[in-house]
Write a structure and sequence with these properties.
The chain has three domains: 190 residues, Triger factor/SurA peptide-binding fold; 115 residues, Chitinase A, domain 3, CATH 3.10.50; 111 residues. The protein is globular, with a radius of gyration of 29 Å. The N terminus is likely disordered. A hairpin with a 2-residue loop joins strand 1 and strand 2. It has 20 helices and 13 strands. The protein is of the alpha+beta class.
Length: 513
């Protein structure tokens, strides 16, 4: 398709707004897109066609997974390798398998989604995302920005509407109405209040450790080189921007962009295409997929906000391959046409030990101080449970390394704001301990020993009808999700599902791990 045709009725800025709105909808669960059908293009250069799983013989490839993980990586700032180290790639792959099974279950029971329903859903989403813009222009902008055909987009949407219809069909109204006693019980459980006293054993107050023993830093480096010290893949790029002609305005610029697109389709490299199409060629030193690295400054200077689009495209290319022409806009809204090719790929790996030895020493010392504080807290906990000492006595004998006894009253399981030094991860331990008992809490500044003084449940008179509505709605959603999950597992039992976990490591684990 020519650049001129692609530009009809759309602008890069508008397309980004629409794309962002659809991403939000997908993340919120309003549009459960099958990313395999939705996204086209390549995945990581190390193996975009590598099959990671098969559902009923249909493959899920590395490219599919990379596209699916894109929004999460953008939100968290993680690289693909870091996300894999945290287990996110495996979780996403599991979700993709479940999505495929749900779609198969919907087809199996004969659920069909008419064209009119798909068109209505698309129109509603577009009206929300781009008010005042024609549906045709908005849809073309969305498809072009995401690299889709209309058929691929509507097929994926149709499949996922079918999954929603399957979920609705599985839930009878009487099943989807939680018992009132259960709703009230869950509310009371969530709003149980406890009074506690605690003494923190701050890591900063622990004794300074001596030098690390032989081999300790090397062991710490081996454990963290794939996360803390991971170096993502970097790529050296060649940018080719179409020079604006002196005459003819935007139409002449578009004609040149068309000519460059034709040259790329014909297999010509960008420097060769520059012999016939006036181009500004810029070499960009290696950068990672977030734009960080030696070439970061040059990339930002050349493209500004458009660098994100170019990076996303560049990391979907194979070495030596040139992208299609992308339309960007400068800060005045003037169109720019740019293509990119990958000149060199520097594989992912880890920072050398020698470069991070100082950091390792600091981390080892911090870990050692925390281990000392945890040992002292464990000793104090044992003495408290044996009745050998009081919490006030623990504070006095702890000395300057301990904070004062902290009194926390009316702490609820569902408290949106917690008093310091508590964090949400520590709350379950408080409510798991018996009244009158002592418990060890894991806090960011170091461990703490807490004494549970009292526990109170709200009375039925305290609970208002309006208080129960969120609990009832959440419980209904969970019941619906569990029912759909059972349907997916039933489909799994009758479907051939193959996964290849070792291939995720081959794609994303740092070299040498």
């Amino acid at each position: 398709m020519s650049i001129r045709a692609l530009r009809t009725g759309m602008g890069a800025g508008v397309s980004k707004v629409i794309l962002s709105a659809f991403v939000v909808l997908m993340i919120a669960g309003l549009v459960l897109m099958d990313v395999d059908s939705l996204f086209s293009g390549r995945g990581p250069a190390s193996g975009p066609g590598m099959v990671l799983a098969r559902v009923g013989g249909e493959p899920i490839t590395a490219a599919d997974l990379a596209r699916a993980m894109g929004p999460a990586l953008a939100q968290t700032g993680l690289t693909q390798q870091q996300a894999h180290a945290f287990g996110l790639s495996q979780t996403m792959l599991n979700n993709m398998v479940a999505d495929r099974l749900a779609q198969r279950a919907a087809r199996r029971v004969g659920i069909t989604v008419p064209d009119a329903v798909v068109a209505r859903v698309v129109a509603e989403q577009i009206r929300t995302a781009a008010p005042g813009m024609s549906e045709k222009a908005a849809l073309e902008a969305l498809l072009r920005h995401m690299g889709l055909t209309e058929a691929a987009f509507t097929d994926a949407l149709r499949a996922d509407i079918g999954v929603r219809l399957l979920g609705a069909a599985l839930i009878a109204p009487q099943v989807n109405t939680p018992p009132e006693a259960l709703v009230r019980g869950l509310y009371a459980h969530a709003h149980e209040a406890r009074d506690i006293d605690l003494v923190p054993f701050r890591t900063a107050g622990a004794a300074e450790p001596g030098p690390p023993p032989e081999g300790a830093l090397e062991a710490l480096y081996a454990a963290r080189k794939g996360t803390t010290f991971a170096v993502p893949e970097r790529r050296a790029l060649l940018l080719a921007e179409v020079n604006a002609p002196e005459e003819g305005g935007v139409e002449a610029l578009v004609a040149r962009a068309d000519a460059l697109d034709d040259a790329i389709v014909a297999g010509r490299a960008l420097p060769d295409a520059a012999k016939d199409v006036p181009l500004a060629l810029r070499e960009i030193a290696p950068v990672d997929e977030r734009g960080e690295g030696p070439g970061a400054e040059a990339l930002d200077a050349a493209l500004g906000p458009g660098a994100a689009d170019i990076l996303f495209t560049a990391f979907a290319l194979t070495p030596g391959e040139a992208s299609a022409v992308l339309e960007l806009q400068d800060d005045k809204g003037t169109p720019r046409f740019v293509a990119v090719s990958v000149e060199e790929v520097i594989p992912r790996g880890s920072q050398p030990f020698a470069e991070v030895q100082d950091v390792l020493e600091a981390q080892w010392a911090e870990d050692a101080r925390r281990a000392t504080a945890e040992a002292e807290a464990q000793k104090a906990l044992a003495a408290l449970r044996a009745g050998e000492v009081t919490l006030e006595g623990v504070y006095r004998t702890r000395g300057n390394g301990a904070g004062a006894v902290k009194a926390i009253r009316g702490l609820e399981r569902s408290s949106p704001a917690l008093p310091l030094p508590l964090v949400p991860e520590a709350v379950p331990a408080v409510f798991a301990a018996p009244v009158g008992g002592y418990v060890l809490l894991d806090l960011p500044q170091g461990p703490a020993v807490a004494h549970v003084l009292d526990a109170r449940l709200p009375t039925q008179e305290d609970i208002q009808g309006a208080d129960l509505a969120p609990v009832r709605a959440r419980l209904a959603e969970e019941m619906a999700a569990e029912t759909l999950a059972m349907a997916i597992e039933a489909e799994r039992a009758r479907t051939s599902v193959q996964t290849y976990p070792g291939r995720l490591d081959a794609l994303y684990a740092p070299e040498g791990r």
